[in-house]
Protein 1
Amino acid sequence: MKQSKMFIPTLREVPNDAESKSHQLLLKAGMIKQVASGVYSYLPIAKRVLNKIEAIVREEMEAIDSVEILMPALQPSELWQESGRWPSYGAELMRMTDRHGREFALGPTHEEIITSLVRDELKSYKKLPVTLFQIQNKFRDEKRPRFGLLRGREFIMKDAYSFHATEESLDATYQDMYRAYSNIYNRVNLKFRPVIADSGAIGGSHTHEFMALAEIGEDTIAYTDGSDYAANIEKAEVVYTPNVQHTEEAALEKVHTPGVKTAQQLADTLGKQLDEIVKSMIIKVDDRFVMFLIRGHHELNDVKVKSYFGTEVVEMASEAEIEGIMNAKPGSLGPVGVDKIEIYADNAVQDINNLAVGANETNYHYINANAGRDFTVKEYGDFRFIMEGEPAADGSGPVKFAEGIEVGQVFKLGTKYSQAMKATFLDEQGKAQPMIMGCYGIGVSRTLSAVIEQHHDDNGIIWPKSIAPYDVHVISVNPKQEVQKELADQLYADFSAHYQVLYDDRQERAGVKFNDADLIGVPLRIVVGKQAAEGIVEVKVRATGEKFEVPVSELTAKIETLYSDLA
Ligand SMILES: O=C(C[C@@H]1CCCCN1)Cn1cnc2cc(Cl)c(F)cc2c1=O
Ligand SMILES: [Mg+2]
Ligand SMILES: [Mg+2]
C-alpha cells in the first residue's frame, strides 16, 4: 500500500494522558483514536494487526473443532432474568431500552445468548459435545478505563462456549482450549504464563487465566522457578504451617494509646513487632457484617473471602457502618467483647497469643487478648495474600511475584447456566440432564496491546513477523529524484509479489519518514536513497537496528534470508 494513500496519523509528542507504553505507542504510531473514555477507533495499521491475530485465533479454534458463529451485541434482558444475572450486575452492565420500552444489555459476555441458542437445538447426548466461538465487541462500563486498549469499555473478545454430556468430555475440551491458547500466544510471540485463577461470580470450579508478562499488568502472579506452578495472587493458596509461639496467658489489660490508628503505630507504641499485632476489619458480606482478624504484617485477600462465602458482594464496611455496629471508629477495632457479629481469622493468627488489638474505643487498645478466653473465633482459614518467598501450594519452592496482563481465561462452568436456563439433553437412558458447559475467552484487542508492551524500543513498535501489519517497508528518501522514485516504484512492485509491502512514497522530509517507520515497526526496511544511481539500496532490520548496503541484484536473496531469520 502506498503511504500517500494510507491513513496513519502519527504523532510527534507523547500524549500525556497515556500512562502505559502500549497506549502511548498506539497513539503515536497512528493506530487508534479515542472516541470516548475507553472507546476507540482502530485505524488501518491496527486493523491489519487485529486481522492477523484473529486469523491465528480462528486457525487454532478450527483445529480443535470449535466452530465460528456471530451472536448479537444486543441481549434481551429476559435471558438475563432467566439466568438470574440481570439484578446481580451493577453499573458495569451497559443497559438500554428500545423504542418499545423493552430492556436490553449490550453484551459483556454471551453465556445467556449461547445457552438459549443451544438449548433449542441440541436435544440428545448423541449431538454432544459442541464448541462454538465468536469474535465480537464486548461492552463493560469499567469504572476507570485505562492504559488504552488494555482496559476499555468496548473491546474485542474471542469467546467460546462448549456443551457436554459428561465431565470427562468437558475436561477434554478444556485441555484442548488450554493447548490452543498456548499455541495462539506462542504464535503471536507473547511471553505468557497460564495461572490458576479464581472463578468469581461466573461460577464453576476450575479456571486458568493466561497472563502476558508485563510490568504494567494489573494482575500479580505467584510462581516458582522449580516448576510450572503459577497462580493469580488472588487465588494462590497459603500453606499454613503452624508456628505456635504461645506464652503464659497474661491478664487482659487496656492501655491508653492516644492517636494510634494503624497496626504499625500500635506496634511502635507498644514496642512490639508488626507481626505481634492483630488487625481487625469489619467486612460486609451480602447484607451482613463479619469481623476478620489478620496478623499485622499480612493483607486480607478479598477474593478468598468472596470465594469462602460464595458471593461477589464483599466489601470493607464504611466508617458509618462500623460506628453503627461497633460504636467505635476504624483504627481501634478489636474482637474482645464482640458477640453481635461472627469473627473469622486467618490461620496465622493461631500462632501467637496475648494479642495486641483495638479496644473498640478511640485511643485505647488491649494487650494480652486471648482467643477462647476474651473472644471466640468462628473459623480459622486461608484468608490472606501469599507473600513473596513463601512456599508454593504444590511444594515446588518459594513463590516469586511477577506482573501480568490477563489476555485469556478458560473456565469449567458446569451446569450453572444450563440448569437456570433449562438447557437439557436426553442421556443414554432417555433422562433429561442439564448440559455441562465450559467457556473460554481471549482478549483480542488486549492481546494486541500486550504484544506492544513486550515488543518495542524507544523509537516505536517492533512487530513479531507473524502479526506485523506489513512485512517490508520500502522508503524512497526523495521521490523528486527521478532515479530514486523509479527504483523505489520498481522494488514496491517486485516485492509486492511475495510480501506485504508498505511504500512510503510521500513528499516528506527523510527524517519524518524514518521516524514514522520506526514508530510503525514493520520488521524489514528497504531505503532507496542517494546510491540508487549505483543500484545500491540500504536494508534495515527494525528489531536489531542492523543496516546493510545491498546491490539491487542481491536484494531478493538478502530480504529472504533476513525475513526467515526474523522472530
Ligand atoms: O465473562 C466472564 C466469563 C467468561 C470469560 C470468557 C468468555 C465467556 N465469559 C466473566 N464476566 C466478567 N465480567 C462481566 C461483566 C459484566 Cl457487566 C457482566 F454482566 C458479566 C461479566 C462476566 O460474566
Ligand atoms: Mg482478574
Ligand atoms: Mg478473569
Protein 2
Amino acid sequence: MRIVIALGGNAMTSSDGRARPEDQAQAVAQAAELVADLVVAGHDVLLTHGNGPQVGNLLLKNELSASVVPPVPLDWCGAQTQATIGALMLSALDGALTRRGSDRRSAALVSRTLVDAADPGFTDPTKPIGRYLPEDEARVLIEHGQHFVEVPDRGWRRVVASPEPLECLDGPAADTLLAQGYLVVCSGGGGIPTVRRDDGSLSGIEAVIDKDLTAALIARQTSADVLVIATDVDSAVTDWGTAHARPIGEVTVAEMRAISRDQGFAAGSMGPKVEAVTRFAEQTGGTGIITSLSRIAQAIEGHLGTRVVPDPPVPR
Ligand SMILES: NC(=O)OP(=O)(O)O
C-alpha cells in the first residue's frame, strides 16, 4: 500500500510551542520508529511535515537581526525549515530502518508548491506560525502591522499569508523515488510557495502553505492509497470542547461535508485536516485518516481514527 503521512509541526515542539532543537529531535525520533514499522511491513511511505513553530521562529530571528545581517524572505525561511527537519528525519528514519534489518533508505526533497499570486490568501492572512504571546505583547506587534489571532487557552499567535496549494512541482521526483523503494520526505511546511510568472519562470513568494492541504495534493499526485494526518488526538470529534463531544469514526465524504457544514472545525487547526482528508477521499477514491501518531497502524487497518471513505456509487 502507498501511504502519505503528514506530521504536524506542533507535534515537534514542547507544550509551550517553543520548538527547542531537543524537543524536535525527540519527536522526530519517535515518529521515525512508527514510520519504519510501516515500511518494514511492506508499505511505501511518503512523509510530509508541518513547520509552523519553526518557520515563525526563523522569521523572528531574521527580523531581530535585520540591522546586523541581511534578512531573507519568508519563503526562504520555509526552505530552511525543510532542510533542517528533513535532515533530522533522514538520520532518524535510516537509523530506525537499519535497526529493523531493512536495507531500505530515506531521501528528502527540497520541494516547491505552486500557488496563484492572486490567491485571496495573500490579502487575508490565516496561517498561524511561531510562538504564543500574551495579548499585551501581541497588541504592540499588531500596531507595527503584524497580524495575530487569539488561540483559545494558548495565547495570541502571528498569522501570515497562506494561499491554496495548486501543484506539488517536485511531485514527479517524489514519485520516482517512491518507485525506487525510498521512504520519501517531501513538501515539508506545505512546500516552498512558488508562483509562475507571465514569462513562464518560477519564483518563490512570501507565504506559508497549510501542510495538510498540500499533503492531500502530494498524496493525489503520487497515487497514494491512504492519506494519514497525524495529530495529537486519536480522532476528530463533533461538538469539541463540550459534554456532547463524540469521536468521528468511519464516514463518507458526503457525511463529513455535512458535519463540517453543521458545526465547523477550527480554522488553522482541525479545519484544514478535515478538508484535506475529505478532498483526498473525494478526488482519489482512497481513504483519508485523522489520528494520533501512535495509532497510525491501527487506523490504517480500520480499527480506529477518523476515516473518510468515498461516497458509494449512486444506483442507476
Ligand atoms: N505549514 C504548516 O501547516 O505547518 P503546521 O502544521 O506546523 O502548522
Protein 3
Amino acid sequence: MSQSSDRLEPSPGADRDPQASRSSSAESTANSRSTEPILSATGLTKTYGDGDDAVEAVDGIDLEVKRGTVVGLLGPNGAGKTTTIKLLLGLIIPDAGTVRVDGTDPIDDPRASYRSVSAMLEGARNSYWRLTVRENLRFFARLADRPADADRIDALIEQVGLTAKADTTVNELSRGMKQQVSLACTLIRDTPIAFLDEPTLGLDVESSLELRRQLRDLVERESRTVVLSSHDMDVIEAVCDRVIIMNDGRIVADGTVDELVDVFQTRTYRFTLEALVPDAARRTLAERFGVDEWTERGPERSFEVALQGDAFYDLVAVLERTNCTFLGVETIEPDLADVFLEVTGGGATTDDVGSRQRHTFEGRGTGRPEESGGEPRVEHRENR
Ligand SMILES: Nc1ncnc2c1ncn2[C@@H]1O[C@H](COP(=O)(O)OP(=O)(O)OP(=O)(O)O)[C@@H](O)[C@H]1O
C-alpha cells in the first residue's frame, strides 16, 4: 500500500475545537479514556479469497494496547502482521470482530479514527519525493487538527537528523534518509497512535541503527503509542516495551521482551571439539539435534545448537559415546531470535540474531557450563 498518510487525511471541517469548554461529563470521559486501552480488537478475523484459494490471514485476534506503550508485532512472512495493522486502521473491513481506536470505531466512523492515528506503511513511500523535506513536513502538518508550526517542524527535522537536508528534495536523499522523512511525516501530525509497518525494511545496518535510535528517542520524548511491525528482532528489542508474536494469523506469544525470553528458556550453546570428529558423531548430532553446520578453525571444529532442559546432557552423552574430544562449550544468552524460533517452530534463522552476550566457559570436560567450575568470561559479540 502506498500514500498511507493521504488515506488517513481527516476531512475538512471535521476538526475538534481544542479550546472547547469542558463540562464535568467531558472531564470524566477524558479520565476514563486515559485509563482504557487506546487500541483494542476482539475476535478480529480476515480471510482473503474463497474456496480453495481462501487465505485465513487473521484468525480471531484479541488485543489491547495501553496508552504510551510501544508494541512490536513480530512474525514470519505471511503471519498476518500487515493485515492486522490494516484492520486496526480500518483500511480493510474484517469478516468478524470489532476494533476500537482511541474511543472510536474505524469501520463505522473512519474519519473520527483517522484523527487519532498516523501510519507509515511499507517504508519510505509515504512522502512526496519532488518536495523538499521541509515542504513534506509542512504538507503533512496541515493535515492535522492542530497543524504543527515552523518551530515544531524544524525540531522534528533535527530529531531525525536531517537539518542539513531540510531544503533538499526527497528524491535526492539516500534510502535511509527517505525513511527518516517518512517517519517524520508520520509523526508530524502528533496523533496519539502511530503505526509503523517495517520501518527499517531495506535499510543498511548503519541506517537501521540510526532510525532505531531516533525512534526510541522520539517515543521517549513524546510518549506516543506506537505499534510497530518488523522482521528485525534487534529493532523490536531496542524499541518495544511489549512484543506480540504472530504466526498463521494468530497471536502465539504476548509479553515483554524479557518475559518472553524467560518463558521460553532456550539456550544456545557453542560446542568446540578436536578436529577429528567421527562420522557417527556427526550423524547422530544431525539426526537428534539438527546440527548440520560446522565451523572449522585450525585444529578445532565447532557447532552451535539451541537446547532446552536435559537435552544439553543428552548431547554431551552423545559426544562421549562417539569418542569426541570435547574442548569447551559457551552458552549464548537467549534473545528474541531464539524465542521467535521456539514459538513459531521456524520461519526465521539464527542468522537474524543481532547482538548477543556470551558467557564463555573454558576447559575440557563434559559438565554443564554452570558446573564446569570456571568463572564465566563474558564477551559481547556485535553482529550488527
Ligand atoms: N490482498 C491480499 N489478497 C490475498 N491474500 C493476501 C492479501 N494480502 C495478504 N494476503 C495473504 O494473507 C496472509 C497474511 O499476509 P500479511 O501481509 O498480513 O502477512 P505479514 O505477516 O505482514 O507478512 P510479511 O511479513 O511477509 O509482510 C499471507 O498468506 C498473504 O499472502
Protein 4
Amino acid sequence: MIGLILFCVLTILCVIWAWMVYVKGGHHKLPPMYPGLLPIVGHMHLLIGDGLSLWRTAKSIAVEAMKHGGVVTVILGYRVYYMITDPEDALTAANACLQKHFAYDYAKSWLGEGLITSSGEVWKRHRKLLTPAFSLPVTLNFLEVFNSQSRKLVDNLKVHVANGPFDHTVYLRSIALETFCLTAFGITGFEDKNFIQKYMHAVDEILSIVTQRFQKFWLQSDTIFKLCGLQKRHDELAKILADMSDKVIQRKKLARSNGTYTSGTKYKPFLDLLLELSEDNALTDKEIREEVDTGIVTGFDTSSSLLSYIMILLGTHPEIQDKIYQEIKEVFPIDRDVEKEDLQKLVYTEAVIKESLRIFTTGPVTLRYVEKDVKLKNYTMRAGSQCVIMLFGAHREPVWGKNVEQFRPERWLDPGMPANPAAFVGFSLGKRSCLGKTYAMISMKATLVHFLKRYKVTADDSNLRLRFDFLLKPVSGHEITVEERV
Ligand code: HEM
C-alpha cells in the first residue's frame, strides 16, 4: 500500500516537473540536453561535491556546449539554464539579460545595491554615475600606489629567495586588498592600524559563506541557512564590514563639511570621488558604502588570482619569461617606477596578461535571469529561465584556432586574432562588463614589472588543481620558487 502511494506521488511529481520544464516555460525548442538528466532533481545531483568537482562539471558542460554549436541545456530542479559558450550568443545574452541570477542576492545584505549585485534602474543609474570614477585618468592617479605596493610585495617575497617552493597567493591577496583599500579609502582614513587586516579577514569569511550558499543548494533555503548558524555569522560580518567603511565615510564627510578636509594623498581616492557625487544628492551614504565595498570585493581577488596564474605560467614557460623580461629591461634600463608613458610600450606584457586570462579565466562565468524571450542564433531563450555565460568556455571556442589550451602570448601580437573580438571575455562582455578593467590592467602591469625585474620564477602548471567558487581558485600545485636576478 505504502509502495503504491509512493509510486503515485512520484509519478505526479514527475508529471508536474516535466510540465514545468518542457511546457510551462514556453513553446521554444530547448538546446541539446546535457547528459545525466534525472526527473524532479534535473542535473542538481551534478552540483554535489566540492569546488574541485564543480569545476570538473563546469568544464564538461562547456565541452558539451562546444560540441553542439555553443549552447546546451541544464535543468536544476525545475529551472531551465541555457549554458552558453558561443561568442555571438554570449554577447546577445549578455546585452539582453541585464538582471542577475538570484544567487547574487546572497551577497545583498553586505553589498546591497552595489554594481555587481543590483539590477534594473538602480544598476543603470549607478553604472552611469560610477563609470567616470573608473576612467583612465582617474586610474593613472593611482600609479604611485601601484608602484609602492608592488615594491612592497617584491620585498615581502625576499624571504623565499632560494628557499624552495612557497604559496605566493597569500602574498598577492594581501597586497591586492591593501592596494584596493588604499585607492578606495585613502591612506589617512585609518585610525586603526590593523584596519586592512581586519577588513580582509571579514571579507574572506563572508565570501566563503556566500560561496557555500551558492554551491550547497540546501543552504538556499532561508530556514536551513538560519538553523545552521550561517545566517547569524553572515549578518555579523556584514555589520562589521559596513561599520568599518561607514566610519571612514563619516569622518571624511565631517572633515569636508567643516572645511578641514584634505585627502592627504597626491591621488584622489575612489571614496572621495563618490563623496563629491553625494554632494549633488546623486548617491546616499548607504549607496556610497555599498559601492566602495563592491569595488574592493570585485577587484582584489580577481586581480590577485590572475597575477598568481601569470607567475605560474611564466615559471612553467621560461622562454616566455625571458621574452617578457627582455621587454621590461628595454623599457626600464634603470630601476625606476612605472610611469604613464611606459604603459603602452609594454606590448608583450599585455599579451601575457591577456593570454593568461584566456587560459585561466579568473571570473569564469556570469549568471543572468532571462526576463523576456531572447533570440540566439539557433534557439530562443524562454522568459523566466536562467542563463550562464561560460566565459572560460568562450576562450576555447574554434575562433581561437588550434591548440587553444596552449599558453601562447604571441597569438595576441597577430592583429587578426581573435577573429571575433567578442571571443575575449575575460572581463565579461556587453553592457555589464567589468568596470575595473583599466585599473586591473595597469595595476597588474606595475606588479609584473617590479616582480620580474627582481626575480626569476619557476613553477610547474602540470600539478595545478583548481576549484570553482564564483572565482577560479588554485587548490594545490600552485607553489612557485623565486631566485634573485643578477
Ligand atoms: C583581473 C582582474 C579582473 C577580472 C578578471 C574581472 C572580471 C570581471 C567579470 C568576469 C565581471 C562580471 C561578473 C559577473 O557578471 O558576475 C566583472 C564585473 C565587475 N568588475 Fe571586474 N574584474 C577584474 C578586476 C576588477 C577591478 C580591479 C575592479 C574595480 C576596481 C572591478 C570592478 C568590477 C565591477 C564594479 C563589476 C560589475 C559591473 C556591472 O555589473 O556593471 N573588476 N569583472
